[in-house]
Structures are given as C-alpha cells and as structure tokens.
Amino acid sequence: MSSDIETIAIKQAAHVAEKHEEDSKTLFGFWLYLMTDCVLFASLFATYAVLHNNTFGGQSAHQLFSLPYALTETLILLTSSFTCGLAVLAAQSKRKNQVISWLSVTFVLGISFLSMELTEFSRLAASNNSWHRSGFLSSFFTLVGTHGLHITIGLLWMFVMIFRLYKGSIGRTTIRQLTLFSLFWHFLDVIWIFIFTIVYLLGGIGV
Amino acid sequence: MMNNLANILGKLNVHALPSSPITAGAVIGGSIAVLAVIALITYKKRWTWLYKEWITTTNHKKIGVMYIIVAVLMLLRGASDAGMMRLQQATSVGSAHGLLSPNMFQQVVSAHGTIMIFFAGMGLMFGLINLVLPLMIGARDVAFPFMNSTSFWLFAFGAVLINLSLGIGEFSAAGWLAYPPLSELKYSPGVGVDYWIWSLQIAGIGSLLSGINFIVTILKMRAPGMTLMKMPMFAWSVLGAMTLVAFAFPILTVTLTLLALDRTLGMHFFSAGYGGNAMMYINLIWAWGHPEVYILILPAFGIFSEIVSTFSSKRLFGYKSMVWAIWAIVFLSYGVWLHHFFTMGAGANVNAVFGIATMLIAVPTGVKIFNWLFTMYRGRIRFTSPMIWFMGFVFLFTMGGVAGVLMAVPPIDFQLHNSLFLVAHFHTMIVSGVLFGYFAGITYWFPKTFGFRLNEKLGKYAAYCWIVGFILAFLPLYILGIMGATRRMDHYSASLGWQPLFIVAGIGASIIFIGLGLQILQVIVSIWKRNETKDLSGDPWSARTLEWSTTSPPPEYNFALLPVVNQRDAYWASKHSKTKTENDSYSPIYSPKNTSSGFFIGLFSLTIGFSIIWHIWWLLIIGFLGLVLTIILRTTSGEHEKVITVSQIEKIEIPLNGGTKA
Ligand SMILES: [Cu+2]
C-alpha cells in the first residue's frame, strides 16, 4: 500500500520533471525562432543598405527623417521594454494585479510607438514620398514596416495575455508565455536600435 | 451587375479557366480523380476515420506518411511535366512546332522545377525525417507535435495552391526561381508569378517551422545516454540540414515577400528603373538556393550512411570524419552562392574566390563517398534494392560532381552557363543524390512503418530502369550543352543536328517512366501480398539503430520503456551483448492530443494566398481573421496532452512480448 503511494509519488515527480523539460524545450525553440527572425531582419537590413541611395531623384533619408522624432520613438520603446521586465518580475512573485498593470503600461507604450510610426508613414505618403516613389523608400517602408508588424503581433499577444490574466490566475502557462513574450519584446527593442542607428542616425548625418 | 461581380471576385473571371486542350484535359482528369476519391471515402463511410486518424493527427509517423503521399503525387505531376518537355524538345524542330506553345512550355518548365524541389524533394525529405528520426534517437515524438502538424498542412495547402493554378488562371513562365525583371508585373502581368510566390511562401514557412522543430527534437530529446557523438549518422545529417533550413529559409521568406510587394503594392525592390536592383534578387534567392541543395541532399547522405552500414553488416567507417564532413558542407554552402551567376558582372577576383570555395565543397563530399566505400570494404554485403539505389548514386553522383567542379572554374562556366550541360549537371546531383537516396530510404523504412516489406524484385527492376534511363536521358544533354543548346528552349533549327540526341534523351525519359511505373506496381503488389513479407521481428534487415528495436509498426508512443544508450549502433550492440537489460516497470506516457488547428492554419493560409493572387480583398480579411483566431484559440485552450495509462500500455505490449509482463 505505502509502496504503491510511493510509486505514484515518484511518477508524479517524473511528470513534473517532464513538464519542466517541456518548458525548456519551448524556451529553446523560441530562441531558435528569434534567431530565424534575426536572419529575416538581417536580409531586410541588407536590402536597405543596397537601396538606400537609390532615391531616383527623390528626397534622401537626410531630408525626409526627423531625428528627434525617431529618438522619441526609441525612448518610448525602451521604456516599454523596462515595464515589460517589471511585469515578468511581478509574475515571478505571483502578484497578479501588478502584472496586469505593468503589462497594460507596456501595451499603451507599444500603441504609442506604433501610432508614431504610422503617423510618420502617412506624413511621408502625403508628401508624395510613399513606397511607390523609389527603391530607397520601398526598402525603408518594408524594413520599418516589418518591425511595426512584429510590434502589432506583440500588442495582440499582450492583449490576449491581459485578458486571460484578468479572468484567471497566474499559472505555469502564464509565466511561460510571459517569459517568451518578454524575450520577443526585448528582441524587437534590439532590432529597433539597429533601425534607429542605420536608418535614422546614419541617414540623418547623410552617410 | 457584371461590374459588381468583377469587384467582388477581384481579378478572377471566366477567362481564368483553361483555354488549351492539354491543360483542360489535365484539369478534367485531376478533378475526376479528386471526385472519385471523395466518392470512395463517402461510400466506405471513412470521413470520420480520415478526420480522427489522419487530418487531426499529431503523431509524427502518420504525419510522415502524409508528407510522403503528397510528395509522391507531386513527384508524378512534376514527372509528367518532364515528359512533356522531353516530347517537345524531341519533336519541335524546324517547321514542326510540337504540342506546346512557347508560353505553355515556359510554364511547364517553371512548374517542373518548382514542384520537384519544393514539393517532391522537400516533401519526401520531411516525410522520411518524420517517420524515423524520433524513433532513431529513442524519442516518443518530436519536440512540438502540434507545430509539426501545422508544418505539414502548410506544405500540403501550398501544394494545393500550386495545383489550383492549373485550373484557375495560369502558372509562372519565369523559370523555377522567377528572376526579375521578367517576373515583375510589367513583364509578367498575369497571375502566374503570384501563384509561384504564394505557394512557395506557404510551404516555405512550414519548412522553417519544421526546421526549428527538428533541431529542438535532436538536441533535447535523445534517449538517455545518447550523446551527440553516439547519434546515428542520419540524425547528424538531419541536424546539419535543419540548421541550414533555419538560416536559409528566412532569406527565402524575405525574397518572396519583396517580389510580392513589388507586384502587389507597386514597390521597386527589383524594378528596372525607379532605383530598383534586380541583381539583389539574384543574390538573395541564391543565398537561400545554394544551401537548399544541401538541405535536400544531406538527409539523403544520412540515409545512405545507415543503409550502407546495415547491408554491409559493419559499423560506419570514419564516423567522426563523416560528422566533420557534414558541418564542413553546412558551413561552406553559405559561401558559394555566387557561382550561380559568374557571368553577371562580379569581376574576375570575386569569381575566383567563389570558384575556389565551390571546388572546396568537393572535399568533404569526397570524404563521405570514400567512407561509404570503406564501410563496404570486406563487409558481408547484401545487395538489396536500397543497395542498388546506393550503387547507382555513387556512380552518377561522382560523375555529376566532376561536371560540377568543372563548372566551378569561372572561364568554363562562361561557356556552359544556362546551357543544357548545367541542366544535366544539377539533375545528376539531385536525381541520383536526393531522389535515389529517398527511394532507398522509403524501401528501407517501409517495413518499420507498415509492418511488411516492399517487393524486392520489382524494386530492383525499378532501380535498374531509373539508372539506365537516367544515363540515356542526361548524357545527351551534357553533349548538347557543350554543343550550345540552352536551357528552357522550346524550339530549335533542324540544321543544328540536335534532334537525334534529343530523341535519345526522350527514350531515356521513357525508361525512367517505366521505372516509375514499376515502383507504383511494387507498392500495389506488396500490399496485395503483404502476408508474405510481414515483419514480425521488428528488425527485418538485421539493422543497427534504435528504430528497429521497437515493433513494426511501432505503437503510438514508440517505446514503452525508453531505451538506454551507451554506444553507437545501440541496437546492434544490445542484440549482441549477453547481459540482458534490466526490466523496468511501465510508467504512464503523456502523448499529445489530436488537433484540427494545424489543418485550419493551413486552410486559412491557402485562403490568404489565393485572395492576394486574385486581389479579392474581402476574402483576404476573412483568411487573416481566421488565421489569427485559430492561433489565439489554440494557444489559450487548456490541456493539450492525454495520458496513456499503464494498463493501456500493458494491453499493447504484453501480446508483443509473447505474453510475459515486461
Ligand atoms: Cu550552388
């Protein structure tokens, strides 16, 4: 009888270990995904590098982009990464309301970033500098737009997480999802730093 | 009214229906076949079975079988394209113009290449990896079974999309890699290139997911004790190939997206004018394309390694050098892409660097060939049909490889670029390396999957037909290429005197078709007489690796007790050691539940692709919402695992172990 209970306990422990291993698999798989995404962005940076002078008689990066505007976007995104980290910390100590608040702050910051980006896009389009204009602008819209698309996916992901947290409690799945999400969000931050440097900073000084 | 309808259906209208009798015939034939299958399933009342056992399955062995079925169907489609090309080039001389119009011929050429690489080759590869890789490393499934099902359905619906182009609209006539500016909207205004883009995009994302899945499976799920250097060579080759997938397929995704943006939104990445740069496309597509060749061929090398070692009854010669050769190939394959366009203005120094890098790849490949031969040396060789495929491979691959090294010399390439010599070269590499490898693999692992062997006699005849037919079909193309015949040529002047060689090539192709027919017959006969070739031992070939230690076919969970490994060729060692492994009691096994999400992700992706091709924007929104909702529902729904209890395992295992409890 007692040995039966013992075996059951052992088997349950084995299952917990299995779950743990599953988490480590998911985490590793997600890292691999981020790496493939890195290759994707690297290809887009390469196309931008090739095409950034091909303005076809139109305005160049130096004339089109405003450095302070891009800097503001950068600060917003960096702050959102910080608040996202705070949400993960709160989740580890199982403070549900804090997680929701920090995630909501991250969400709002993400939305602000995205709206600034879209405002810039529409300003460019309105001044006859849309992607039809030249190879340079095609590659600009695609590179920055792909990052924006990732941000949009991140926002959707956050929205679903906030909704689920609101309805339920912090379980293993939530913590795992939040960990993956924060990896994703930090990754987008890093990509943005590259965009800021290559597109706005080097473009602004006219390299 | 008509105007409204036109708006609702985008660019789609009655003119999209086939106009040539050949396509119309193919579409009608295809539709009848599909209807017949549907009728049969309905008549036999098998829809529930189909849904529960196959469509929603997350079991890697069933997914593997489905991959191979789709791939074989696509192989037959690609082969019929090849037949049309051989017929056209053998007959369209001087005043005769053959059956196909120039535009149709270009579509057939493009479809043949695209289908064979993306759907036949990749499908057979992922099919075989799914069938055996988890078994071979002593795992119960892949790392992410749901993602695996998604990958398959993306692949399958990509295949559906490319076949839709046959009946609705047209296919690309811009070659298998759709070089711009020809593939730009200005020069290819139809929907053909869009079909090409979106069927590859959908299937390609599936491949990328699979790549991630198998890397995690190999690195995280090996049986206890199986260190990396104790893995079977097939697992090593898959790890190499999947690493290539993870680095190369994102580049393909980007390249296809940029071309789609040019065509659909009027961007100017590759336009001639507006500051576009067509050479950038050619660099990008080959940065994916060259590694792709090795993605297909490395697993085939792995299969040959397993087969040669098993049928020579010896352990693989030079295991460590084999591993190093794989990683040398992986590494080098990213540094040679420019050899595909030596003639396009890179300059002598750049060409020299890439030429030398290309020749370097012959070194690790040669190492592998010699290792296989040394494995056979003084072995007790059994000449089964997988070994016949292997011998054909060694002979043809070495020949084609020498032709490849020849073309790696830039000045020679200037003579042979875009000639039939090149076509003959890469067909030698891909047919003998990739296809023969996968045929050998299918024959070898068939009994493991289905519990009975394939008919050996027909298998050998088929292999002989393929080898002889291949030599007859492609030797003339080498010669014609040197004589100046270019690729994708739908007509030539009679005064060139090329026709006899093209007729020989046509005869060779017919012999290959006899080989294909024999393979189909082989499957039918083997199923018919399956009781004669039943595999009751689980180890019909006296093999060496773990997949043979379980039953044929294996139970859902593969291994009731996970095998413990302490050396290479673990199963061989355990068969020949006197100490019996200690029996352990069973534990419950956690196994993934079935899910339809993968199927719907594939279906909505098809919808998205189709609606972009035809500019049907409301359908695009539906497809997009469907996709997002399916993913959200899947990731937020509860438990995805079911438990197989100890008593269920015992019910399966005890009859297998001859009635004794493990
Ligand atoms: Cu190459």
Number of strands of chain A: 0
End-to-end separation of chain B in angstroms reads 74 Å
- Can you give the mean pLDDT of chain B? 93
The residue fraction in helices of chain B comes out at 55-70%
Word description of this protein:
The complex is a heterodimer of chains A (207) and B (662). Chain A is mainly α and 207 residues long. Chain A has helices at residues 2-51, 61-64, 67-92, 96-126, 135-167, 172-204. The longest helix of chain A has 50 residues, at 2-51. Chain A is elongated, with a radius of gyration of 22 Å. Chain B is an all-alpha fold and 662 residues long. Chain B has one domain (46-100, 107-595, 640-661): Cytochrome c oxidase-like, subunit I domain (Cytochrome C Oxidase, Chain A, Up-down Bundle), CATH 1.20.210. Chain B is built from 20 helices and two strands. Chain B has helices at 2-8, 21-43, 47-55, 60-91, 102-136, 145-167, 192-220, 233-265, 278-311, 319-332, 348-376, 385-407, 410-416, 420-450, 456-483, 499-528, 570-576, 597-613, 617-636, 646-656, and strands at 589-592, 641-644. In chain B, strands 1-2 form a two-stranded antiparallel ribbon. In chain B, helix 6 packs parallel to helix 18. Chain B is globular, with a radius of gyration of 25 Å. The mean pLDDT of chain B is 93. The A-B interface holds A 11, 14-15, 18, 21, 24-26, 28-29, 32-33, 35-37, 39-40, 43-44, 46-47, 50-51, 54-56, 131-136, 138-139, 141-142, 156, 160, 164, 177 and B 143-144, 208, 211-213, 215-216, 219-221, 246-247, 249-251, 253-255, 257-258, 261-262, 265-269, 271, 273-277, 280, 284, 587-588, 590, 628, 632, 635-636. The site of copper (II) ion has 5 residues of chain B, from helix 9.
